[in-house]
């Protein structure tokens, strides 16, 4: 049993209006930009994120297991002229 | 925030001066068109989708008003978000009754406080699972490393990075850039082609307005203060791929309107050597009216540099329509300012107006 804790940091100033993150097809419930998921088996997993906001708005995501970083997205951005962004990353536990 | 405001105001002063010259150059282009130099704010402060804390000064020739807004946003578990906001507005300076642009909003020139709630949701997001993960490693990352000096750690497989592989000059010159269709295909793994954000909301506004007028019989100058209120409901639709926002707002309001301005003189003949007593301005008390106003707005970003916001309004009681078309020339992303031209028309006197403006930069989603 591995509890993955995801911490999200959005651009200050409310330029990210909303975001949601999915691990292994399951959307995480976020409280104060932090959410958890229990991944029972070791292996490779997919992290997907969506966010809406203004162009230039950025989102960072850090996933940890027992204090060890297993995945980190330093800065995902909404492109010029768009109001939504999204991305994908693979990680292993 | 403070730094931004100071920087923004300094930028605005310089920009207004430049636009003032442009405005004067436009004068005389047509006798049917009134040319004015104006500054306007973007709908991001007063628009129904606005979610920011903000301070804005809006001015026209000889008059201005200031708006202060505080808002609180709450994200919802399904990716939606709701916003509560409180907005105060008051006219400042001389000639304040002329502060607004072509508008049917009877509260536009009053001192008002507005409470607003809006709720927004995105429909059409997709979970690509591992279907794009392979392309990230074999297709997009190798291209990214060619332009980022093999900084593998900085690669993020997201819509922004993949989009940059379409327009990068080096990749284009080498003829290995991604095509727009390939980027669109990547994006549609996360958002289907018909994905959209929809919003709805309610607002209520109350306040007062001071009026100065001349008594119709004695031409004595008088002042009155009247209370104003309005209630609005709105809906908005923002298709992700069209770079557009459609908003419909229905407002019921009770406001006062100045009597018609004219120049009148007392019929009493002046005593020898005295001047005739005349008055120039609204003759008679302001009149109260309760109206229903429908406002439709279409905001569209055409290119990275040009956008417009077409607004049409109808006052059903007074049977007056207005159309306003600000065209934004997006120029300064750092200061958050943009300027442009605004065309206006009202059915009241069938008169068109043309002005230049500077304000906050154009945004589809506030």
Task: Please state the overall shape of chain A, judged from the principal axes of the Cα atoms.
Answer: elongated
Report the biggest beta sheet of chain B as strand number plus sense, adding barrel if it closes: 13 strands, mixed
Task: Fill in the CATH topology of the largest domain in chain B.
Answer: Porin
- What's the average pLDDT of chain A? 88
- N-to-C terminal Cα separation of chain B, in Å? 17 Å
Low-confidence stretches of chain B: 1-45, 95-100
The total count of helices of chain B amounts to 6
Residues in helices of chain A, as a percent range: under 10%
Provide the CATH architecture of the largest domain in chain B: Beta Barrel
Q: Could you describe the largest sheet of chain A, including whether it forms a barrel?
A: 4 strands, antiparallel
Percent helix of chain B: 10-25%
In terms of structural class, how would the helical and strand content of chain A be classed? mainly beta
Give the C-level CATH assignment of the largest domain in chain B: Mainly Beta
SSE order of chain B in H/E notation? HEHEEEEHHHHEEEEEEEEEE
Overall radius of gyration of chain B = 26 Å
- Compute the number of strand runs of chain A: 8
How many domain units of chain B?
Answer: 2
Rg of chain A, alpha carbons = 13 Å
Taking pLDDT < 50 over at least 5 consecutive residues as the criterion, the unreliable ranges of chain A are none
Architecture overview:
The complex is a heterodimer of chains A (93) and B (366). Chain A has strands at residues 2-10, 16-23, 26-27, 34-39, 44-53, 58-65, 68-77, 84-92. Chain A has one domain (2-92). In chain A, the strands form 2 sheets. Chain A has a 4-stranded antiparallel β-sheet, with no helix packed on it. In chain A, strands 3-2-5-8 form a 4-stranded antiparallel β-sheet, with no helix packed on it. Chain A is 0% helix and 67% strand. Chain A has 93 residues and is an all-beta fold. Chain A is elongated and about 40 Å long. Chain A starts with a strand and ends with a strand. The model of chain A has no long low-confidence stretch (mean pLDDT 88). In chain A, 42% of the residues are buried. By secondary structure, chain B is an alpha+beta fold. Chain B has 2 domains: 2-124 and 196-214 and 229-249 and 296-360, Porin (Beta Barrel); 133-189, no CATH class. Helix content of chain B is 18%, strand content 48%. A 13-stranded mixed β-sheet of chain B has the order 1-15-14-13-12-11-8-7-6-5-4-3-2. Chain B has a two-stranded antiparallel sheet with strand order 9-10. In chain B, helix 4 (159-167) runs antiparallel to helix 6. Chain B is elongated, with a radius of gyration of 26 Å. The relative contact order of chain B is 0.15. Mean pLDDT of chain B is 78; it is low at 1-45 and 95-100. At the A-B interface, strand 2, strand 5, strand 7 and strand 8 of A face strand 5, helix 4 and strand 6 of B.
């Amino acid at each position: 049993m591995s509890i993955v804790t995801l911490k999200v940091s959005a651009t200050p100033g409310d330029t990210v209006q909303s975001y949601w993150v999915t691990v292994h097809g399951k959307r995480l419930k976020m409280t104060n930009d932090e959410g958890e998921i229990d991944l029972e088996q070791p292996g490779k997993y997919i992290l997907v994120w969506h966010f809406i906001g203004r162009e230039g708005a950025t989102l960072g995501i850090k996933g940890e297991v027992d204090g060890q970083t297993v995945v980190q997205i330093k800065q995902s951005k909404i492109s010029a002229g768009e109001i939504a962004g999204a991305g994908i990353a693979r990680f292993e536990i | 925030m403070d730094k931004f405001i100071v920087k923004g105001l300094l930028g605005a002063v310089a920009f207004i001066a430049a636009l003032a010259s442009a405005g004067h150059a436009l004068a005389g282009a047509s006798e049917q068109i009134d040319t004015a130099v104006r500054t306007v704010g973007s709908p991001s402060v007063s628009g129904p989708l606005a979610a920011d804390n903000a301070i804005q000064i809006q001015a026209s020739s000889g008059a201005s008003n200031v708006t202060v807004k505080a808002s609180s946003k709450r994200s919802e578990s399904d990716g939606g978000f709701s916003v509560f906001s409180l907005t105060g507005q008051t006219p400042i300076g001389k000639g304040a009754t002329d502060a607004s642009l072509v508008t049917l909003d009877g509260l536009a020139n009053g001192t008002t406080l507005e409470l607003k709630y809006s709720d927004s949701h995105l429909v059409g997001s997709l979970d690509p699972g591992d279907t794009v993960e392979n392309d990230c490693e074999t297709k997009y990352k190798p291209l990214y490393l060619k332009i980022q000096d093999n900084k593998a750690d900085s690669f993020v497989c997201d819509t922004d990075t993949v989009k940059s592989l379409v327009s990068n000059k080096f990749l284009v010159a080498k003829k290995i850039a991604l095509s727009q269709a390939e980027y669109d295909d990547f994006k549609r793994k996360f958002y289907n082609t018909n994905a959209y954000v929809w919003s709805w909301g309610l607002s209520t506004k109350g306040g007062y307005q001071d009026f100065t007028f001349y008594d119709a019989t004695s031409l004595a100058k008088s002042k009155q203060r009247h209370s104003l209120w309005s209630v609005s409901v709105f809906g908005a639709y923002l298709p992700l791929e069209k770079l557009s926002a459609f908003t419909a707002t229905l407002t019921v309001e009770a406001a006062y309107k100045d009597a018609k301005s004219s120049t009148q003189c007392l019929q009493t003949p002046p005593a020898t050597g005295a001047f005739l007593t005349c008055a120039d301005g609204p003759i008679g008390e302001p009149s109260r009216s309760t109206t229903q106003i429908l406002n439709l707005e279409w905001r569209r970003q055409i290119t990275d540099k040009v956008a417009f916001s077409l607004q049409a309004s109808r006052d059903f009681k007074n049977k007056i329509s207005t159309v306003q078309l600000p065209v934004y020339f997006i120029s300064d992303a750092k200061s958050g300012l943009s300027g442009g031209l605004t065309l206006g028309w009202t059915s009241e006197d069938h008169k068109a107006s043309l002005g230049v403006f500077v304000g906050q930069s154009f945004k589809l989603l506030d």
